[in-house]
Amino acid sequence: MKKIVIPCIAVIFILSSVLSIAGCQQTETQTYNNYLFGFSCEYPDGWALEETIPGVVVAFVEPSPVRMGRTVNIVITAEVSYEFSGLTVEEYARNADEQLSLGLDSYESLDEYSTDNDGIPVLVRTYSFDMNDTIMKGTQAYIINNNTLYIIGYVAAPDHYADYLGHFNLVIESFRF
After folding, report:
1. DSSP 8-state code for residue 72
2. What is the CATH number of the domain that holds 81?
């Protein structure tokens, strides 16, 4: 089961390298389509797409100038494996939580809720962890469909976490196959 949790930890480390420190809300959106992994979602208008990060399908990058070397990213990963066949998002999340607690300093699960997109279960978990003596707050949405695990992730400093949470929720709510 440890192999199955690796994508979850990878998303956190990718997000942690490009964290939020400021934000603004926008209402206009664009549609992103990924034909290889068979999904689409909305993302904020004006945000850049980054599809060259190893292990990441796409990162939506906020348009604000880089401050202190960090920007906001909302990252989507996807991994195809028969190991996900029959696995529920709750089972994946339970195992991911265990691995995250072992792999991240001061990891704490803060909140969790279940929803669905067109009848496909989605589990959303919010957590905190220590990164270089800074407590960070993140949220990941787990979706399993047709032997593919999708993780949509967002990490920010707690005092700026709410700045882009609406954009993260937009991606989750619009995610379709």
Report:
1. -
2. 3.40.1000.10
